[in-house]
């Protein structure tokens, strides 16, 4: 059974919201993961509450243990009434429609002053309304399922569950005997008309641990060994033994995804922790954690969610734990990124969702990292991302390019650039002189050469952060690093100098002579040389004659403006493979070939780093460059040195 249509009006923050079958399924009728985004208070949880309440109302008519009884009736999961009506309106309603093969099931929650006839006019596929008389009262109505065998079987053998935003898993170090715990799961025997599993799940790891142990034992029950090797018991079917071993491998795959290493499940002796299961690192051939209790909160949360999906489906059909692709149902997760580190959000969670192609996931999130990850994992037509509260479908995955960039910037700076940040902190502590940071390994060489040649600036007592390929740098990490450094009080002035060839950096640091970030940290973009030389890299501070200086091997820098967009040079002497730079005011320092080099085997382009080093080392032909334009940069540096920070 899947959600097919939903229509909500004037409920909470939602004025009008509508989703239909054509949006919710792929071309081969596979359910798309549905992701709801929007700021707090935009109606995401309100939308989920209608879907979850519909599942409760439909299943409660079929099973006697879904909702608590109250007299001759039962207690609603979701309260109706004026509290649900959007401000300045006098009615609200939500309609949800599900289908299973040829059958369909409906739900309506009506609040306030609206007639049944008016609701029919708004949404014409409400078949249940034909049997409901007009009334001004608030009411809920759902399709009758108590005699529907197909509905009952579907709910029993598939996964229908809701993980709310207040879900949790207790950490391993808590003495569970010292606190009051109301367990959701019980050991009651199954009775007729009992569903015997909760739709709403706040915590599930304890139950999941016991279930994993059962699966593990099932996978071993048919196998024994003797001096001739491993055998299957004669009373057992070899096919069953092999199939059950696949069940535990599926669980191992889920855990391996979560902990991001190849894991094997092994058995603990009694009395080792609260879990009989331990995890073994196959690559390093060592114990990873002594028990499942030792997983982090985020890892435990993911394990609880995705193993519950399997557990709910294999209760009556063990094949479901063998063939995850056959599990069906609806899994609703509010704030899916809760408790999860960004790598779990970006890399792990989308891949876990992909393991269950027939499960209809309905998810809310605030995380750009999860959105970037799922956009990378799924084709754009195979996911549905909805902006709340207006219900507008976000069509293009390209809309999340800034999220992808944010993810890589964050992980690079916090992980890959930790060495660079540590080096910078150590350099800051080594002296009290103003320290110049540049965004590339060539820029500091040009500035150091210029300062040496410009007599007016010999008195500037400054240091440069000098680095080569061992330091990963660029405009993004440099910007991130100074944002970090500005939070550390220090007595040394830190001056970050950016090129002016990126709009984002220009908007941030190029609109004034310099920007003071606090705690003696400053930033600016190199000033423009002239109105014709504005958005440029530092190499354009040299004259055209200097820029085209040949080294001893006859190589030189090339300007993109020297080439047609075809890659042919304007003077017909060269060709470049860097066609994306042709016709632009950028430097081309590779893949330029003489027309006579038909095989294009020997590039005549000089690398930007070799160009900068030739100037710094005053190599032949590079000794007498004109550095006059660099005075614009050192004038700003002098202003910063003389600046009195508050």
UniProtKB/TrEMBL annotation:
Q: Which residues form the AAA+ ATPase domain?
A: 30-398
Species in which this protein is naturally found: Ottowia cancrivicina
What's the protein here called?
AAA family ATPase
In which domain of life is the source organism classified?
A: Bacteria
Q: State the PANTHER family in the record.
A: ATP/GTP PHOSPHATASE (PTHR43581), EXCINUCLEASE ATPASE SUBUNIT (PTHR43581:SF2)
Q: Which ranges form a coiled coil?
A: none
Q: Which InterPro entries match?
A: AAA+_ATPase, AAA_GajA/Old/RecF-like, Bact_Antivir_Def_Nuclease, P-loop_NTPase
């Amino acid at each position: 059974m899947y959600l097919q249509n939903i229509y909500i009006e004037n409920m909470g923050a939602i004025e009008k919201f509508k989703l239909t079958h054509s949006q919710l399924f792929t071309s081969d009728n596979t359910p798309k993961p549905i992701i709801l985004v929007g700021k707090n208070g935009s109606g995401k949880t309100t939308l989920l509450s209608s879907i979850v309440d519909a599942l409760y109302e439909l299943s409660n008519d079929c099973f006697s243990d879904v909702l608590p009884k109250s007299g001759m009736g039962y207690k609603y999961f979701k309260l109706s009434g004026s509290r649900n009506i959007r401000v300045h309106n006098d009615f609200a309603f939500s309609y949800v429609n599900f289908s299973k093969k040829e059958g369909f099931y409906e739900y309506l929650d009506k609040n306030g002053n609206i007639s049944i006839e008016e609701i029919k006019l708004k949404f014409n596929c409400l078949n249940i309304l034909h049997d409901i008389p007009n009334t001004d009262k608030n009411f809920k109505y759902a399709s009758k399922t108590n005699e529907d065998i197909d509905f009952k079987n579907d709910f029993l053998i598939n996964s229908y569950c809701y993980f709310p935003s207040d879900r949790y898993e207790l950490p391993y170090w808590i003495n569970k005997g010292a606190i009051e715990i109301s367990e959701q799961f019980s050991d009651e025997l199954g009775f007729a008309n009992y569903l015997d599993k909760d739709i709403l799940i706040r915590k599930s790891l304890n139950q999941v641990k016991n279930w994993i142990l059962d699966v593990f034992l099932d996978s071993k029950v048919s196998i024994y060994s003797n001096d001739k090797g491993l055998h299957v018991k004669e009373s057992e079917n070899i096919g069953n033994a092999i199939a059950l071993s696949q069940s535990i491998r599926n669980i191992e795959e889920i855990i391996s995804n979560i902990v991001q290493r190849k894991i094997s499940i092994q058995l603990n002796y009694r009395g080792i922790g609260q879990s009989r299961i331990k995890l073994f690192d196959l690559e390093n051939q060592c114990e990873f954690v002594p028990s499942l209790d030792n997983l982090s909160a985020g890892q435990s949360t993911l394990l609880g969610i995705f193993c519950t999906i399997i557990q709910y489906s294999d209760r009556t059909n063990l094949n479901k734990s063998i063939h995850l692709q056959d599990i069906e149902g609806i899994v609703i997760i509010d704030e899916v990124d809760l408790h999860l580190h960004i790598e779990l959000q970006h890399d792990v969670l989308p891949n876990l969702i992909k393991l269950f192609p027939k499960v209809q996931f309905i998810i809310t999130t605030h995380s750009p990292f999860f959105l970037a990850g799922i956009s990378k994992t799924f084709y754009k037509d195979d996911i549905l991302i909805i902006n709340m509260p207006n219900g507008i479908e976000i069509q293009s995955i390209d809309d999340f390019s800034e999220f992808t960039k944010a993810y890589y910037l964050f992980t690079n700076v916090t992980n890959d650039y930790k060495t660079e940040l540590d080096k910078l902190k150590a350099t800051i502590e080594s002296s009290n002189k103003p320290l110049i940071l540049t965004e590339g390994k060539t820029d500091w060489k040009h500035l150091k050469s210029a300062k040496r040649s410009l007599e007016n600036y010999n008195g500037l007592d400054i240091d440069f952060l000098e680095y080569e390929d061992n330091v990963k740098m660029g405009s993004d990490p440099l910007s991130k690093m100074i944002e970090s450094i500005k939070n550390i009080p220090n007595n040394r002035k830190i001056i970050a100098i950016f090129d002016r060839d990126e709009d984002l950096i220009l908007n941030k640091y190029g609109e004034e002579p310099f920007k003071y970030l606090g705690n003696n940290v400053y930033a600016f973009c190199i000033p423009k040389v002239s109105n014709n030389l504005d958005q440029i890299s530092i190499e354009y501070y040299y004259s055209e004659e200097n820029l085209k200086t040949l080294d001893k091997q006859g190589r030189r820098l090339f300007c993109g403006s020297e080439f047609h967009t075809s890659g042919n040079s304007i003077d017909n002497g060269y060709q470049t493979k860097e066609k994306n730079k042709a016709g632009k005011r950028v430097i081309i320092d590779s893949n330029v070939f003489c027309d006579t080099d038909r095989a294009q085997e020997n590039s005549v382009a000089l690398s930007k780093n070799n160009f900068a080093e030739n100037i710094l080392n005053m190599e032949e032909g590079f000794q007498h460059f004109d550095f006059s334009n660099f005075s614009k940069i050192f004038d700003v540096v002098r202003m910063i040195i003389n600046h009195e920070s508050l």
